[in-house]
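sorry for the late reply, my laptop died twice this morning and i had to redo everyting from scratch. anyway the thing you sent over, i finally got around to it. pasting the sequence first so we're on the same page, its 240 residues, then the predicted structure underneath. double check i copied it right bc i was rushing
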Amino acid sequence: MKVRYAYGTDIGRKRDQNEDAYLCREDLGLFLVADGMGGHNCGDVASKTAVEVVERLFDMAGDRGAAPERLLVEGVQLANKAIWEIASTMPQCSGMGTTITGLVLTGGSFSFVNVGDSRIYVLSGGSVEQLTVDHSLVEEQVSRGLITRSQARHSPKRNIITRALGVRNPVEVDVGSREAAAGETVLLCSDGLTTMLEDEEIASIVAARGDDMETAVADLVEKANERGGDDNITVVMLRF
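ok and here's the structure:
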């Protein structure tokens, strides 16, 4: 299935550096977003390592017929190990980690993975569906009925994640798959977008731009910054 894509990243309004990383490899059908953590403790190193390790595995696999979903999960585990080892051997990087969310296209469908609170959405006809589940403290509180979804968005604990690459080895990886329907839009993003905008706002902005994906991505980043730009903002958009 033919796919078009657009992407954008921005430091936001309150961070000193951009610790997000992303990958768009149409030739591999591989798209990733990673959001590094650790501040001065190498968060950018963690996110860049994550996408580079996964990309390298796919490049090395070539045309050997390995199942794309298996490669994606293996790549995430290898990235986790690499980040773990860097953090263990370099004191200045102690405590670093990163989220990762990504997908690989396989014919008329795609497989996806997630660790942390970066997200994958499917947008169609003005509707929005979150494919991934956040690995965060507030998500656990919502699922247990302790707080509402609205309260979670404004909670001072909303940035506390419960799963990340580089924290434990091995790491638990969420895996899923979905058919790729013609006309659907798939959005991968860091939480710099989703903590600033409601899901319905994201869907509305994308729908308003129609086929102009590049402007839609720019509008999402701009709107997140208008709302405060509390974190780095990264968006990768695919359309089938």
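The longest strand covers residues 30-37.
thats about all i looked at so far, will dig more tmrw
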